[in-house]
Structures are given as structure tokens and as C-alpha cells.
Amino acid sequence: MTSQTMPISNLCSGRSMIVERLSSDHKLVSSDFEAKKQTLVFIDQSVKDFMMLMSGIQADVEARLITASEDGIQQITQILSQSTSVKNVHLIAHGSSGSLKLGCTELNIDNIEEYAEQLKNWSNSIGGASLLIYGCEVAATLTGIRFLERLHQLTKASITASTQKVGSSEQGGRWQLDYQIGQVSSELTFLPFIKDHYSGVFANYNENVNGDISDDPENPLFLQLAAGVNSLRATSSAGDIEYVTVNIPAGFQLESIILASYNSTDDIAFAAVQEGTTFTEFGLPSEIDVSRLLGWSHINANQVGTNVLDNIGRGAGTIGFTGPLASGDYTFWFQQTGEPSTYTYEFNVTPIARRHQLLA
């Protein structure tokens, strides 16, 4: 399956851009860039425990939140245009080989030329500066290296990134960046407690990078979901059925599945779900017992930015459900009904609110 360029118009909501940062009292407020600070950190809202990361930034560093519903490249471009004194820029975001998720935008080797003019404008602020990219495996493979080299050419910044997972060592991550273009002078800007206690990694599952999604209903691809946003990107066609089992850990729930992007000339896809680690209903439509499905729904580009989990739960003739899915195993069937599609689903996992018993 080959990677396909996703038009920018399919990725973002088009609402007015909101750029926020976390102040010292941990409140989100609008703010002009503090020109005296030479290090600027952008943290994408989709990474796990982004509020914890924002609160763990060193005092002499300016931190900005990339809002998940808006174009991240535009947000960064606007902030950088306010200052020419920046010497170090850190990007904290989900990544994969040759790809970064910034807001509702996925910047990758396929679409980087669409953002060339904005990235060239970055050079007015960070040309000759250091750009540190904390996203999993962004520098992995030749695709990752090509992506970073082009980013370096456009921004004129020295760049460092990772060929491995970034984040918690318990999840197989590390905080050291091991690939470099030019001379990078900055180091990690988090306080020590972040390295010691942060439990996430900045990774997504990208079929074009991590491997083909299983077409075997009895042996689906298994994804262990973690608190926060878990991203799944894939390419599908009419003859390409994809099965994915997700585990929602105890004490958590699947709050939503956001269709973050969808690109197809056919514009109709299909998604269904059953409880358990296999999918028992498959074959021709006439052979499927819909009553054994937990839910199903058609998927199309008009649903980009919306929660498709609600639509799946209302599937006609199915068991059905409303609200979040409880902890446990669920297997999804994803399929395009006609022409190939490239799509991204974001599985949003949240903790279950505890109920406290009142004592007499």
C-alpha cells in the first residue's frame, strides 16, 4: 500500500485559529510571544497528558499549546512571526517515519511542499537556530531522513530528531534524540520530574510505516490503547479489509473516535465493531448477521473532525450502544467500498470518573 497525499482542506475544521499557552498558574490564556525568551516549545494537544508536559517546562522557556482542531503549521507560523530572537524551537508531537502530527495537520514527506512557503517563513525566526523534534521515529528509515533534510532546507534550522520511540522508558521510549543535521545547541527543556514520571510516548500507528494491517478476522492487528489520543492511519480499498483489535485498559473508557482525516475519490467507507479479540461476521453482505455486531456506520469526508463512534453505535439492526465504550477488547472492521482511501482515526481514551461514597 502506497502513501497518499492528504489535501489540507480535508484535515482541518476551518474554524478561526486559537493559539494558547499555559501561564505559570497553569491557566490557558492568550498571550503575545515573550520576545526575551530564546527557547520556544510547542506541545501538540493530542499527546498524552499534555497539561503535565506544559507544567513541566523550565521557567526560562516559552511554552505554547498547538490546539488539536486547527492547522498546526499555521499556528506555529503565526507565533514565530512575532519574534526574530528565537534560538531554539522544540516540537512535542506524535510522529512516525517522515511524519509529524501538528494540530489537525499531518506534515509528512508527501505534503511538505504544500507548506513550503510557510516553512520558509520560519527561517526568518529560526534560520540558523536549533529545531528539536520530539516525535517517535521521525528520523527512522530513508523516508524520515528525506523529510528532515527537506525541512532543514526550507527552515534553514539545524535539526535533531529520533530514530526510536520518544518518551517513557517503560513504553520503550527515550528522551535522547539520535539523528542530527547541523549543529544543535539546545537540550531537553523539561524539569526532571517529567523524565521520571511521564508515562507516554509520542507515537501513532501508521500502516505505511509500521506494517500492513491484518486482513484476517481471526487474527487482527492488536493495539494497546493508552490514556489520551491514539492515532491509526491507513490506506484501504474495496478489496482490502482491515481488522484491528483495541484494548481499553481497566479504569478507562473510549470516549470518542474522531475521523481526523479522510481522502478518497469514492467518498464512502465502512466501519463496524464487535466485542472481543476476533471478528466473527465477515463475507458478503448477505452472509453477515448484523444483529451480532455491536455497531456499524458508513464513513465519508463530511465526517472529518467529528466523533464517528456515536454513528457506529446507532447502526441499524445491531446491538447498539450510546456513550463511551467501557474497558475491554473490541475488534473493528474497516473497509473502503470503492476507490482507495487514506484515513486517520483518533481513539480518545479517558479515565472513568470515580464515584465517592458519602459516609454518615
Report on this model:
- This protein starts with 20 loop residues before the first strand and ends in a 9-residue tail after the last strand.
- It is built from 7 helices and 20 strands.
- Strands 4-3-5-9-10-11 form a 6-stranded mixed sheet. It has a 5-stranded mixed sheet with strand order 13-15-19-17-18. A 4-stranded mixed sheet has the order 12-14-20-16.
- It is globular, with a radius of gyration of 21 Å.
- By secondary structure, it is of the alpha/beta class.
- Strand 9, helix 4 (141-155) and strand 10 (158-161) form a beta-alpha-beta unit.
- It folds into 2 domains: 8-197, Rossmann fold (3-Layer(aba) Sandwich); 212-351, Jelly Rolls.
Task: Describe the structure in brief.
This protein is of the alpha/beta class.
Q: Could you tell me how far the N terminus lies from the C terminus, measured between alpha carbons in angstroms?
A: 63 Å
Derived from helix and strand composition plus strand pairing, the structural class reads alpha/beta
- Give the CATH architecture of the largest domain: 3-Layer(aba) Sandwich
Number of helices: 7
The SSE string, one letter per element, is EEEHEHEEEEHEHEEHEHEEEEEEHEE
- Biggest β-sheet strands, sense, barrel: 6 strands, mixed
- The percent range for helix content is 10-25%
Query: How many strands appear in the DSSP assignment?
Result: 20
| Overall pLDDT confidence | 80
Oligomer: single chain
At CATH level 3, the topology of the largest domain is Rossmann fold
Radius of gyration: 21 Å
Strand content is: 25-35%
- Structural domain count: 2
Unreliable spans: 1-11, 13-35, 355-360
The global form is globular
